[in-house]
Amino acid sequence: MPTLVDRIRDLLLGQPDENNNNHAPAMRITVQCDCGQKITTRIEKAYELQEQYLPAADEDTPPTVAGYVLKKDLVGDCCHEPVRVIVHFDADKRVIDHSIEGGQWLSATECA
Ligand SMILES: [Zn+2]
């Protein structure tokens, strides 16, 4: 019978997964709203990234995943203006590009 602490740890860290190619399943994005407030959010890559496909050569060829994109509006605690973030990932879910409206990009960190 796992303790509550064990279950919370599993929830936070995830179960060990041999299929994730050692890439972190989650990341942390920090931005700064135009009002000055810093906003940090956790991104679960498995759930929040949208797949982007290469156009298939013909109807019989399954589409190839070219990469992933994340679109997210972040709102600070004391502010109602969203910071709109778009992050592009390669096929291995590593950040390759980002754009932002309403604030400044500060950092993106892989969660260990
Ligand atoms: Zn703000």
Written overview of the protein:
It contains 2 helices and 7 strands. The strands form 2 sheets. Strands 3-4-5-6 form a 4-stranded antiparallel β-sheet, with no helix packed on it. The radius of gyration is 17 Å and the shape is flat. It binds zinc ion. The site of zinc ion has 6 residues, from loops.
Compose a concise summary of this entry:
With 112 residues, this protein is mainly beta. 12% of the residues lie in helices and 48% in strands. The protein has one domain (19-110).
Question: Which features does this protein show?
Answer:
48% strand, three-stranded antiparallel β-sheet, mainly beta, 112 residues, single chain, binds zinc ion
- Helix proportion: 10-25%
What hetero molecules are in the model?
zinc ion
Kindly report how far apart the N and C termini lie.
26 Å
Q: Topology as H/E string?
A: HEEHEEEEE
Give the class from helix and strand content and strand pairing.
mainly beta
Mean pLDDT: 86
- Please indicate the count of domains: 1
Which sequence of strands runs across the widest sheet?
3-4-5-6
Percentage of residues in DSSP E strands: over 45%
List the uncertain runs: 16-22
Please state the CA-atom Rg, rounded to the nearest Å. 17 Å
Number of strands: 7
Largest beta-sheet details: 4 strands, antiparallel
- Shape verdict: flat
DSSP summary: helix tally: 2
